[in-house]
Each structure stands twice: as C-alpha cells, then as structure tokens.
Amino acid sequence: MHLFLFRYINPHVSEFQYLPCSQLREITYTTSFTMLRIVLLALVSSAFAVYDEHHLAPKFNDFCKKCIEERNGVGYYENPEDCRTYLQCDLDENLNVKVHLKECAEGTLFDGSIVTCVPCEVATCPGSKVPYPQCPPRTPPPTTTIGYTTLPQFDGKCDGPDGWTYLAVWGDANTFYRSQTLGDETRIERVSCGQWEFNVHRCMCMVPDLQAIALWPFDEDTDTKVDNFWTDCAGVELAPGKVGYAAHFNGTVHCEVPRFNNYPWGSALTISFWYDNAAHAKNEREGLLSNGNCAIEPTITMYSDRGHIGGRVLIDNNGTLVTVDLGSYGGNGWNHVALVYDGLRLKLYVNGHLSVDEIAVGSIPATLAPLYMGRDLDCEANGGFRNTNLVGFLDEVQIYDWALNEAMIARLFSGDRNIKMARTD
C-alpha cells in the first residue's frame, strides 16, 4: 500500500509553512480492492485571504483620501506598505472613499510612476516598500494548501534536483507537477511558475517568449487581454467590428491607458490596429492613437483624415529630435495599420503593404501622458486643421515591445493576435 500526499505549491508565499494539527483535515477513502489513503492538507484560509479588501483596505482610507484630493483623483496608487500590491482608490455615490487592495501578478511589483506592475528585476517601488527577496526564485518554494486528487494530463518529464521528477502539464505552461517516491510513500506536488513558463527541456521555470505587452480585441469588454493594468474607456461602446466586436467612439469619449504614462518606448516597438471612420467622420482630422494631450507634445500620434491614416513619430537621435511623417494612406472602410520601429528604421504597413520605410536611428522618447485611443493630440487648431476626437471604430489594438517582421505583420493583417517569438537574450 502506497501513501500519496498531494500538495499545491503556492507562489504567493515565500517560505515553507508547517501547519498545526488544528489546521489540517485528513480524509480517508476506502475501495473494495485496496485502501487508498489520501491526505489532503488544507489551509483554513488561503494565501489570498491576506488581500481581503474588507479586512485590510479600510486602514488605507486616509491614504486614498489624500491621494484623491492632492494627487490625481480616483485611480490606482501604491500600497505604502508593500509594492507587491497596489490600491484602487475610488469614491462611491455619496463621495465616500472606497478602497480595493489589488495584487500584482507573480514576479511583478507595482511602480506608481507608470501606474502598473512591472517585472521585479527593474522595479524601484517609489513610495512603497520593496519585499525581500525582491524577486522570487525561478521555482517558487513549496507551501502546503488545498490538495488535489485528480492529476492532469502530462506532457513530458525531466529529472529535477534531490530526486524529484518534474512533469509538464498539457495545456498549462505556467504549472508543473513534481513527483518523488521514498519507500512506500509517493509525493506529488503541484508547482506554479507564476508569470513564467515551465520548460521541460531545461527542467525549470523560464521567462516566457516575447509576446504582446498590450492587447485590446474589444470583443467582450475594453480590458487588455495580456499583462495586468487598467484601461479607462468610460462611455466607449462595443459594436460589430473587423474581427468580432470593436470599440465604437462617438466623438465625445476616448480611452486612456495610464500604464504608458512616462513609458520608455525606446528602440523596439510595434503598434497594430484596425480603424474605420470614413463613413462616420464629421471632421477633417480625428485622433486614433497618441501619447500626448493638450499640454504635452506627443512622440507618437496617428489620426484619420476622412479614412486616410496620417501622423508622425519623433525619434531622439543623440539629443536631436527627428520627425518621421507617416504620410496619407488608406481609404474607405476598415484599414489595418502596423507601425514598426527597430532603432534603425521606422516602417508603416497599411492594409498589408509597406507604405513608409524611413531611416530613423535612435529611440522614441517617453511623454508624461497616458496613451490615448480615439482622442486627438491637441485641443487647439494644429497645422490648419481643427483636431477632434474619433467618430468611428477601433479594433484589435496590439502593442509589442519588439519589432515584428514582415511575415508577422501579415499574420496580424490576417487576424492573428498576440504574436509570440522565442527569446534569444
């Protein structure tokens, strides 16, 4: 008779926990053939209970109140006690402060300067406390919590340290199981890699392949489907689009993405989206995407002139700003746009064709403004045109922090999402 001990490895707790008997439950199952004793170890409260907003959030009421009144209104702010979490400071219908305590994804910490969770290796946590260690180990240490009695389908195995066998899980790259047999006891434990992925060939959790850093398909809601950040699209509606549904802008609403405030666009970038406004346009120029506003000049701006794409990108070449004009392309109906920059050349693909290919050595500077969708760059007349918000549609907005090649752009034009590529660094 073998004793099987199932344990779940919780990546959110940084050390092994031994539980007193009062916190364990033992369940015994008997069959007509043999006795299978499965010990299920369960925490009375899971690791996530520490983030119960009803328990901890009220102590941050004064902090949130001050942030709303003196900083930037309702929104997301650092947790002054721990940058593994952050605060959503809001007001209810009676203007009372309402606090939600949110948790960053495993391997990331909250950076209040750009209002998002960033990789722990580069996080500085302004206004908050950095945990120790700052980054979790590649394979998170085990912590006993809820047990599992049904094993998944495995997809390969490898020899781990200390006599463990690591088992890759079919269809779940962020999780693996490890098995060890000592005498008549077999232990099988479930381990999470957090945001990293298990590589059965290296037998360890690894940084995942390159992929999109932001993706708005606008099929079910206005949230990004990758990463962990907020998009404010108040008033923007969903309507039938180019691929599934799309975001519909009526000229009085827009989307803001605080995650890209002061974002280092750098020398590697791809921005892809579909737009349609020719049949709906009421103005000569309507904003599609920009990282500037009334007070801050954008370094990236794209607009539609009755269906024709236009805009510019500013490149910093050793302190000298170089302007790359995006020309005028596109037309009636849906148009696909892909802006690609690799630090040497800036390219613009329109409806699958290379329309702009300019030498532009340097990097794209950050701006102290969020990324805007459906809002133009300036409030006043600019270049003889009265700039206004979009009356039309945006769909499949995707942003990558690397330059996609021509074959990948063709895939985006065909409707693919979240193109991935293996890391070489």
TrEMBL record:
Pfam family, one: CBM_14
Single GO MF descriptor: chitin binding
Chitin-binding type-2 domain: residues covered: 64-127
Superkingdom of origin: Eukaryota
Gene Ontology, cellular component aspect: extracellular region
Record has Plastid as a keyword: no
PANTHER family per record: CHROMOSOME UNDETERMINED SCAFFOLD_146, WHOLE GENOME SHOTGUN SEQUENCE, OOKINETE PROTEIN, PUTATIVE-RELATED
Protein name: Uncharacterized protein LOC106157790
Annotated organism of origin: Lingula anatina
High-level lineage: Eukaryota, Metazoa, Spiralia, Lophotrochozoa, Brachiopoda
Gene: LOC106157790
